[in-house]
Structure formats: structure tokens, C-alpha cells
Amino acid sequence: MSEVSRAEYCVIACAEAWRDNGEVLASPMGLIPSIGARLARLTFSPDLLLTDGEAMLVRPDGTPEGWLPYRQHLALVSGGRRHVMMGASQLDRFGNQNISCIGDWQRPTRQLLGVRGAPVNTLNNPTSYWVPRHSRRVFVEKVDMVCGVGYDRAAGARYHRIPCVVSDLGVFDFATPDHSMRLASLHPGVTVEQVREATGFDLTVPDEVPPTREPTSEELRLIREVIDPACSRAREVGS
Predict the structure, then answer these.
(1) Cα angle 233-127-97, degrees, rounded to a multiple of 5
(2) For this UniProt entry, which segments traverse the membrane (predicted)?
């Protein structure tokens, strides 16, 4: 196998978000998270449920394997049996996410997607995040509007959990006493200084930061030959 690309490390990191999840509905939003969810299903998380986004449960190749009535979909969403990986226009140290607007909500300087389903996702089932371009514009001291709910605002929410944040620089979690963001691993070629420089708040950094795990030869084969033979992943994260 040729050298592993940065995009492939990101795929592996996204796939790891669904490790040991069992029979839950995986809802990846974005290209690399979608490749990661399919890889997880084909390898270490065979019980994952994948959906076409409408009414069907699908196999990793996209062919139907079951029907998901809307009523059952809502039961999974509201009962903690769904794990979403969303994008974020802004994220703060406690995992509050903004996808709605930049600037004051009453007079924003830029209108984005809108709140959409972010509050329901974050309060009712585990929600991870994918950021393809790690920068101070995304990782901010305070989000302009809270769409996805972070740890400092989720007291009493039974199913609230943010397993991880994956960016093109590394993997982050909230395994700190106050549930603030921590650097969990670095992608190869990335330094702690690069991450700190690209983050708009004081990030918790352990004394020893491990590298993001390497894909196995079988995982690389699946990514390159089965799931994404057109190498579309490279358009989202360069090598």
C-alpha cells in the first residue's frame, strides 16, 4: 500500500467515533464522515444502521436492507440510539456549535444554514463533529449563536454526549474535569504548536499526545477499492 494520506487518517478518525456503538443509527453529514461510517460498518462496528436519509436502511454499498418508518426514526433520534456527526461553522471549548449565522443574531453579517436539527441532535443523542479546515474562524472563544448544545449548557439532558471532534489536524474530546476540549491525537505531520495556533481558545493539551492511529492494510483496501475508489476524499482534505 502507498503512503497513507491525511484524508485517509481523517476517515479512520471519523470511523473510530462509531466504535463499540452497537446497533445505533449512524448519521454522518459530509463526505469523509460518510466514508468513515461505512468503513466502521464493514469492519469493527457491524451492527451499525446506515440510512439513505429518507426511509430506507442501507448496506455500505447503498443497496436497501430494510425499511425505517418515520415513527421508528424519531424513536431512535429521541432515545439516544443515534450517533450524528455534524459539521460546524463555529465550535467553542465546551462543544457549543453554530451553523446559523455569523455576527449578532438580529443583524448577522453572514447567514448560514440555520439552526435546523442541531438542538434535537445534541440533546437527544450523541453528536460528534467534523471540521475539514481547522482554523480560528471555526474554533472560537464563544460561538455567535448556540445551535448544537455544549457541555456547559446541557445539564440534565439524559442523552447529551459529544464523543469527539475530528479536524484535518487531529482528534479532540472533552475528557477533562470541566468537559472542556482536549487534544486527543495528532494526525501525522501536525504539531501541537500548529493546533494551538489554529485554535481560538486555550486548548487542554496532555504532556504526551498520541498520533491518530494508522489504518490497517484491509481498511486501506476498503477505502481505496470499495468505498471511495474515485478518491473523492482528497477533494475535502488534501494530502
Answers:
(1) 90
(2) none
DSSP state, residue 215: P
Could you give the CA distance from residue 99 to residue 160 in angstroms, rounded to a whole number?
A: 18
- Measured in degrees and rounded to the nearest 5, phi and psi for residue 130 equal -125, 125
Closest CA to 86 of 172, 175, 165: 165
Measured CA to CA, the distance from residue 112 to residue 98 in angstroms comes to 9
CA distance 168 to 41: 22
What number of residues does the chain have? 239
What is the rounded distance in angstroms from the CA atom of residue 223 to the CA atom of residue 15?
11
| C-alpha cell read off for 206 | 496532555
Instruction: Quickly count: other Cβ atoms within 10 Å of residue 85's Cβ.
Output: 27
Distance CA 75, CA 68 (A): 11
Cell numbers 473510530 correspond to 16
Q: What is the pLDDT of residues 45-79, one digit of tens each?
A: 999 999 887 788 899 998 988 888 877 777 777 78
Over residues 4-40, the pLDDT tens digits come to: 999 999 999 999 999 999 999 999 999 999 999 999 9
DSSP string, 178-200: T---EEEEE-TT--HHHHHHT-S
pTM: 0.93
How many helices and strands in the chain, by DSSP H and E? 7, 13
- Name the grid cell of 149: 448544545
Helix (H, G, I), strand (E, B) or coil at 88: coil
Residue matched to cell numbers 485554535? 199
* Cα distances (angstroms) measured from residue 38 to each of 17, 62, 74, 104: 12, 10, 22, 38
DSSP 75: H
